[in-house]
C-alpha cells in the first residue's frame, strides 16, 4: 500500500486525511527536490512520533525503493505541494498501479491554484513553465518559446523556478531572452509571509524579494479587474 | 478580518490552518454553488460547535454581506476546492483589499491539480473551460472554441461541468459540437471513491459514472507515458 501525500506549501497545509494516513503508515519517506516546502519537518516528526526519511532525487527516480517497500508495507511518500503536479510523482503512481500496488493520492494546496493570489484568473493561464538553473553547457530555450506561445494566445504563464532559485536570476534570464514587459513576482505564495510585486523586468530585478520560493507570472492580455488588482499592489 | 478558506474536494481535505481559522472566527459563511464539495457540513459544524451559514449565489455576488460583516468581525468564508480558482472569490479578495479589510487566503486541494490522477501531465494543459448547463436560449459556443484552440496547440483541456451536471450530458454537448475523439471522464476525483474512464465519446456517453462531481478532459497530443496510463484504465 502506498499513500502519495501532498504537504502543501506551508506548515498548516497538511490535511486531516494526510495526517491519518501518516499515522497508519509503517514507513514514511519524503522528498524536497521537486519544490520547496516552507514547513518544519522536525515538528511533523514530533507530532507523529515517527521518523521521516528524506530521499534524494537519485533514490526516488533511479531506485525502486518506494515501490519495493510498498509491496510489503504501508508506505507514505510525502511531497511538497500537490503530489501530482510534478511529473516524477505521476510516474510513481503509474508504476505502482502497473505493479498491482494499491495507491491512494492525498491532494494538497499547490502553486498551480495559489497563483490566484496575484488576482490573475486561473482560467486565463496557458501551460506552466519550469525554469531550470542554467548550467555550464545547458541553456534551454524551450521555456521562453513556451512563454511566447502563451503570449501570442493572450494567455498568462506561471514560471516555476528551480528549487532555491531567486526571482532576480530568473528575471535576468527573461531579459537575456528578449523580454522587457511587465511581470508579476510572487514570493512565498500560500504562506502568511507572501509578497507580490508587479512591474517592468528592469525595475523588479533590482528588488530583493526575501527568501524563496519565488515564482514569476508573465501576464498575457489583462482583464480590467486583473489590471486593477495588479496596479493596486 | 476575512479568511477565504478552501474546503478541498472531500471531507478530510480541510487543513490544520483552515480549522484554526474557523475556530477563531466570529461568523462562518459557506457557498456550494461554484463547485461540489463531497464532505459533510453537519459534521464540520459539530466539530467546531459553530453554525455555518450557507449563502446563495445572490447573497455572495450581489450583496456585500461578507465584506460588511468582515469590517467589524472575524469572518470565515468557506468555499469548495481552492478559494481562488473561481473568479467570484478572486473578486471578493480584490474588493476586500480595496476596502482596507485584512484578508488571509487558506488554500486547499483543487480539481486543477487533482486532475493529475488521470496520468495526464499538468504541464500540458491549456486553460481550463467551464461548461454551463444549457438554458432555453443560451447555448454558448465559446467553451468549444477554447477546446479547439487547445487542441490546435497540442494541449489538454480540463472541462469543468456546472454543479450537479453529469458527464453524459456534457459528452452529448461535445458531440453536437462536432467532436468525436477519445476523452477522459473522471468522477469524484480527489475522493476515495474516484473513478476514471478513457474512450470514444460515443461509447462513454452510454456509461453511468455514479454521482457527481464529474469532469471531462479532452486530451491534446499524448506523451507515450500518458497514453500508456490511459490505456491501462
Task: Please supply descriptive tags for the structure shown above.
elongated, 233 residues, 5-stranded mixed β-sheet, alpha/beta, 10 strands, homodimer, 5-stranded parallel β-sheet
Protein described:
The structure is a homodimer of 233-residue chains. Chain A has 233 residues and is α/β, with parallel strands linked by helices. The first copy, chain A, is built from 10 helices and 10 strands. Chain A has helices spanning 16-24, 41-48, 57-61, 65-72, 87-98, 111-114, 142-152, 167-176, 201-204, 224-231; strands at residues 2-6, 27-30, 52-54, 75-79, 103-106, 129-131, 157-161, 182-187, 195-200, 214-218. In chain A, the strands form 2 sheets. Chain A has a 5-stranded parallel sheet, with helices on both faces. In chain A, a hairpin with a 7-residue loop joins strand 8 (182-187) and strand 9. The longest helix of chain A has 12 residues, at 87-98. The radius of gyration of chain A is 19 Å and the shape is elongated. The relative contact order of chain A is 0.15. The mean pLDDT of chain A is 94. At the A-B interface, helix 1, helix 5, helix 6 and helix 10 of A face helix 1, helix 5, helix 6 and helix 10 of B.
- Residue share in helices of chain A? 25-40%
Helix and strand element order of chain A = EHEHEHHEHEHEHEHEEHEH
Number of helices of chain A: 10
List the uncertain runs of chain A. none
Please outline the helices and strands.
The structure is a homodimer of 233-residue chains.
Chain A: E1 2-6, H1 16-24, E2 27-30, H2 41-48, E3 52-54, H3 57-61, H4 65-72, E4 75-79, H5 87-98, E5 103-106, H6 111-114, E6 129-131, H7 142-152, E7 157-161, H8 167-176, E8 182-187, E9 195-200, H9 201-204, E10 214-218, H10 224-231
Parallel strand pairs in A: 1-4, 1-5, 2-3, 2-4, 6-7
Antiparallel strand pairs in A: 7-10, 8-9, 8-10
Amino acid at each position: 500500500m502506498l499513500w502519495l501525500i501532498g504537504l502543501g506549501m506551508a506548515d498548516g497545509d497538511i490535511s486531516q486525511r494526510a495526517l491519518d494516513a501518516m499515522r497508519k503508515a509503517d514507513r514514511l519517506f519524503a522528498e524536497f527536490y521537486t519544490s520547496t516546502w516552507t514547513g518544519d519537518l522536525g515538528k511533523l516528526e514530533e507530532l507523529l512520533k515517527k521518523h521521516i526519511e528524506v530521499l534524494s532525487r537519485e533514490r526516488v527516480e533511479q531506485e525502486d525503493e518506494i515501490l519495493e517497500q510498498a509491496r510489503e508495507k504501508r508506505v507514505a511518500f510525502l511531497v511538497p505541494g500537490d503530489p501530482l503536479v510534478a511529473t516524477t510523482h505521476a510516474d510513481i503512481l503509474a508504476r505502482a498501479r502497473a505493479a498491482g500496488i494499491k495507491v491512494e493520492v492525498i491532494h494538497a494546496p499547490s502553486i498551480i491554484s495559489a497563483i490566484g493570489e496575484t488576482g490573475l484568473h486561473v482560467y486565463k493561464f496557458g501551460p506552466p513553465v519550469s525554469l531550470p538553473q542554467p548550467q555550464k553547457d545547458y541553456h534551454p530555450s524551450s521555456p521562453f518559446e513556451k512563454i511566447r506561445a502563451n503570449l501570442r494566445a493572450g494567455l498568462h504563464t506561471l514560471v516555476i523556478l528551480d528549487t532555491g532559485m531567486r526571482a532576480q536570476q530568473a528575471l535576468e534570464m527573461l531579459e537575456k531572452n528578449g523580454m522587457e514587459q511587465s511581470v508579476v513576482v510572487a514570493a512565498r505564495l500560500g504562506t502568511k509571509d507572501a509578497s507580490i510585486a508587479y512591474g517592468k523586468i528592469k525595475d523588479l530585478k533590482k528588488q530583493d524579494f526575501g527568501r524563496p520560493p519565488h515564482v514569476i507570472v508573465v501576464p498575457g492580455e489583462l482583464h480590467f479587474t486583473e489590471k486593477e488588482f495588479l496596479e493596486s499592489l
